[in-house]
From TrEMBL:
This protein's UniProt keywords: DNA-binding
GO molecular function: DNA binding
SUPFAM superfamilies the UniProt entry points to: L30e-like, YlxR-like
Protein name: DNA-binding protein
Domain YlxR, chain residue ranges per copy: 51-119
Region (Disordered): 1-50
Organism: Minwuia thermotolerans
Biased composition (Basic residues): 17-31
Length: 237
């Protein structure tokens, strides 16, 4: 006699509880891999924001671009902290990107509405970036991450505890040479004068300073790179 196949759906086999345990064990044995976090954003590297420069059309990481928004009067405004509300447009932080804006304004097309350029947009952006850098340095100082004074900085550098070295731009050739010898592999920043550094750190006549590693040091480095690009000044003096 030929066996007949049942028309009833085949029932599930095995314990549901056991299957759940097996799934959990598999996840534990094979954890999902993720990219290491970006030093500045804290997000995985693959999630680092990419934006397009409205002048060159080239895409890149926001660490080398600057965001702009429209204020209520429809004037283009730099958003160096990338927090202002509204539609944003991005420009490369390089100085040459700003040089042709007076001849051809790309912002109306980017914003799809009237967008007026302020006088000396490059100068305004540079001043805002400079202020942001010094504010970050002040925050790092308040968190106990900044050391000032050559002897103290030399001690930190000797122990490998200086993630960022700073020398005053108007400190003179000798101060720069001494800072360069101390810095070693640490980046050396020479974009700020003694008066600026002294005001940011609440101390007198600051020529040499060092910042310990951490998120604030990473943010400070990011902003000094953008400041260097728009000012046209080398970051190390």
């Amino acid at each position: 006699m030929t066996p007949t196949r049942s028309s009833w759906p085949r029932g599930r086999t095995g314990s549901p509880t056991r299957k759940k345990r097996l799934r959990r064990a598999t996840k534990t044995r094979n954890p999902r891999r993720s990219d290491p976090p970006d030093a500045v954003t804290g997000k995985p590297a693959r999630e680092t924001p990419q934006r397009r420069c409205i002048v060159s059309g080239a895409s890149g990481e926001t660490a080398r671009l600057i965001r702009f928004v429209l204020d209520p009067a429809r004037v283009v405004t730099p958003d160096v902290e990338e927090k202002l509300p509204g539609r944003g447009a991005w420009l490369s932080a390089e100085r040459k990107t700003f040089e042709g804006l007076g001849r051809k304004n790309p912002f109306p097309r980017a914003f799809r509405e009237e967008a007026n350029l302020p006088e000396d947009l490059a100068g305004l952006t540079e001043r805002l970036l400079r202020r942001r850098c010094l504010n970050l340095l002040g925050l790092a100082n308040g968190a106990g991450l900044v050391t000032a004074g050559f002897e103290k900085v030399a001690d930190k550098a000797g122990k490998g505890e200086a993630a960022v070295m700073i020398v005053a731009a108007d400190g003179g050739g000798t101060a720069r040479e001494r800072a360069a010898r101390l810095a070693g592999p640490a980046p050396l920043i020479g974009l700020f004068g003694r008066e600026e550094l002294s005001l940011a750190l609440g101390r007198e006549n600051v020529v040499h300073a060092a910042v310990a590693s951490g998120r604030l040091a990473d943010m400070f480095l990011r902003e000094t790179e953008r400041l260097s690009l728009i000012s046209g000044s080398p970051v190390d003096w």
